[in-house]
Amino acid sequence: MSSTRCEIREACTDHILQCLAATEPHSKPYPHFWAQNFLPDEIYGRLLAEAPEINQFDDNSYGRENKNGSINRFSMHLINEKIDRLPLKTRDLWYGVRDAVGSVATKQAVFTKLAEGLAYRYGIAKEQVAEVEAYPSCMIMRESEGYYIKPHPDARSKVVTLQVALPQDNAQRDLGTSLYRLSCNPAHLMREPRGFCEVERYPFIPNSVFAFSVVNTARLRSWHGRTTLPMGCGVRNTLLTVYYANAANANPDIVNEQYGLARAA
Fold first, then answer.
1. What are residue 142's DSSP bridge partners?
2. Most buried among 69, 155, 205, 207, using CB within 10 Å?
3. From residue 66, how far is each of 1, 143, 154, 169 by CA, in Å?
4. Which of 38, 54, 16 shows the shortest CA–CA distance to 202?
5. Which fold has domain 3-264?
6. How many CB atoms are located within 10 Å of the residue 168 CB?
7. CA 70 from chain center: how many Å?
8. Rg of the Cα trace of the chain?
9. DSSP label at 209?
10. DSSP three-state, residue 31
11. For residue range 111-134, what is the model confidence (pLDDT) as tens digits?
């Protein structure tokens, strides 16, 4: 592992932990948090300037075809094989950021912030949630006009979802993910998404982060989604990390390099 990669990882991890320590979690409509300045400013600027080209991305299964047949959602999983295809000068950057976001320390801090939802889901004390077994999968998402996804709570195979917004400026502030609750109000039955009330939509602004604990029970569900991205909105770029209950669903390189060592320590 190069010294540059290590330096980026350490700088990002320290910054993320400071950001999360100052972040106030919310319990309604389900446990979540939103914060700004998630990554160091210099690193964030480099991520935008050194973003992978579209030919590095794969069609995503949640993508929708537009009327002209174009695909409006692509993903690039930050596995070693993919990062090693990037230009040499950018590899340490993306390795370092992935290492930091996928680290055990970040996972424990994120889970601690979402203690209310995780304690409810697993029936444990809030003090125990940092040690809940879960493994991250990190990827870059690119979504464009025409993309949408209906309100859904996420599958129970997922434990926590974390999304870092990667816009250039505040021009896309209305493109954030929406938090919903079920509603029987006739007005909500007549418009999309039918049967749901939007409770919150945090601004999609540079270097902000949104995360929630996945809850999918009869009493409480982590409903979230995105209405159709409008024409002319540009590309909605995000750094997405999903923590899975089963290591087999996660990034194998992160699991082997970091969580394997953590379990052996």
1. 74, 237
2. 207
3. 42, 12, 24, 26
4. 38
5. Jelly Rolls (2.60.120)
6. 13
7. 24
8. 18
9. E
10. coil
11. 999 999 999 999 999 999 999 999
Q: Per the structure block, which two tokens stand in for 23?
A: 């972040």
Q: What is the pLDDT of residues 144-184, one digit of tens each?
A: 999 999 999 999 999 999 999 999 999 999 999 999 998 76
For residue 105, is pLDDT > 70? yes
Give the confidence band of 211 by pLDDT, cuts at 50, 70, 90: very high
How far apart, in whole angstroms, are the C-alpha atoms of residue 189 and residue 236? 28
Q: What is the DSSP string of 78-119?
A: --HHHHTTS-HHHHHHHHHHHHHHTSHHHHHHHHHHTHHHHH
pLDDT at res. 70 = 72
Share of the chain above pLDDT 70, in %: 91
DSSP classification of residue 93: H
Reading phi first (left if > 0) and then psi (alpha if -120 to 50, else beta), residue 146 is in left
Please report, for the chain, the start and end positions of each structural domain, with discontinuous segments joined by +.
3-264
Structure tokens at 104: 């055990």
Sign of CA dihedral 49, 52, 54, 59: negative
Q: Which pLDDT value is given to residue 263?
A: 42
C-alpha to C-alpha distance for 89 and 85, rounded to whole angstroms: 11
